[in-house]
Amino acid sequence: MLIDWFTVIAQIINFLVLVYLLKRFLYGPIIKAMDRRQEKIALRLEGARKKKEEAEQETELFLKKNREFDARHEEMLSQIKKEAEARRVELIKEARSRVDADMARWYGAIEKEKETFLQDIRRHAVRHTCAIVSRAIKDLSNADLENRITSIFIERLQNVDNNEREALAQAIQHSMEGIKVNSAFEIPGESAKEIVQLLQKLTTDPVAVRFEILPELICGIELKLHGRKISWNIADYLESFEESMRATIEAKGIKKQPE
User: Fold this and answer.
1) Mean local confidence (pLDDT), 89-113
2) How far apart are CA 241 and CA 82, in angstroms?
3) Which of 43, 66, 139, 219 could form a disulfide with 234 if both were Cys (CB 3.0 to 4.6 A apart)?
4) With contact defined as beta carbons under 8 Å apart, do 154 and 195 qualify?
């Protein structure tokens, strides 16, 4: 069988021309279209990836803000609870202070009324006791009560111990106001003179003695000198009576304010 080389070469040329034409007008556009499509798909995938990343970032930011909000919310709730508790404690303290103040005023008023009542009882008791003692002494010894009180005071002044005598002497020397003798009655002249003489024996300097009448002493006489005092007073003997009356009143329900 003879080979027709012309035909073979023509077919080869035709095939090459066909391949060129297919590549030029068919495969080339198809490949370019596929490349463009692939690029578009890649761009879309890249855009989708970026959007996904942005969405994830926004989601993370939202979650972070949500966590921060929850934390602030808890912190605010805790702060509100603390402030409410502090306010509650403050209100309780204020209420307790008001109650304590009211109780203090009430106890103060009760104590004042009690002291006033006791003072009234004491004054009446002293006054009536003095009157009874005065009548009793007059009936028994025919001696005036005031003279007897003066005599007792003079005896007490005469019988002071050495320490008291020395203290009185120093008080006389340092006193700028002089010596003051108070009594509930007028001291007779002889008794007053005797008191001055006793005081003069305590110092070599002249002494100035002022006698004053103080009715509130009630059957009493006292010597005041530079912070020192020598006295005799029937009221002193009634202190136990006053304490007894105080105990009786408190036993009936008038109590002192608790500390």
Assistant:
1) 86
2) 58
3) 219
4) yes
**Which tokens sit at 186?**
């007028």
**pTM for this structure?**
0.41
Distance between CA atoms of 191 and 3, rounded to whole angstroms?
188
How many residues are present in the chain? 259
Strands 179-183 and 220-225: antiparallel
Q: Which residues have CB under 8 Å from 226's CB, separation 6+?
A: 171, 172, 174, 175, 177
What's the rounded Cα separation, in Å, for the pair 56 and 71?
A: 22
Q: Tokens 């949500």 sit at which residue?
A: 66
- Determine which of 50-59, 92-101, 176-185, 223-232 has the lowest per-residue pLDDT on average: 223-232
Beta strand segments in the chain, E: 179-183, 209-213, 220-225, 228-233
Question: In a 10 Å sphere around its CB, with 0-12 CB exposed, 13-18 middle and 19+ buried, how is residue 21 labelled?
Answer: exposed
- What six digits make up the tokens of 233? 């007073």
Tokens at residue 80, please? Answer: 């509100």
**Token representation of residue 173:** 């020397």
pLDDT at 8 over 80: no
Average pLDDT for residues 10-20, to the nearest whole number?
A: 82
